[in-house]
Amino acid sequence: MVSDDRKRPLFMISVAAELAEMHPQTLRMYERKGLIKPSRSSRSTRLYSMEDVERLQHIQRLTSVAGLNLAGVERVLDLEYRMTELLQRIEALEVELADAVDAAQRELDEAHRSYRKELVALPGREIVLRAGYRRETRSR
Question: At a CB cut-off of 8 Å and minimum separation 6, what does 62 contact?
């Protein structure tokens, strides 16, 4: 729910510009360049979310502190987006791998249980339990 609140379009352009500490005309330019995509009201008024304001602040840091031009900012934002997608994919694959390992371990345990039931002591030999596995040894 907190994530949804950050995405809710609440601020008109003047408020968003003030929160991001930039001129409203800069926000319009960023929109034309495709760096920000504010929502629109039924009357086509731009509405910015808190997430949009944070993105604007990030763009401002990239231009003023890192000295990037808008093409560089666009590239950085694209790479950050792709990195986030890849990290989410890695997390999903880690969960999938853990599930596969658990399933393989269950199958292995079941296989061990099944052949333990089939072990039969032969005359003159005994079955000895060692480290969780049964092994046939010669009696002396």
Answer: 68, 72, 73, 76
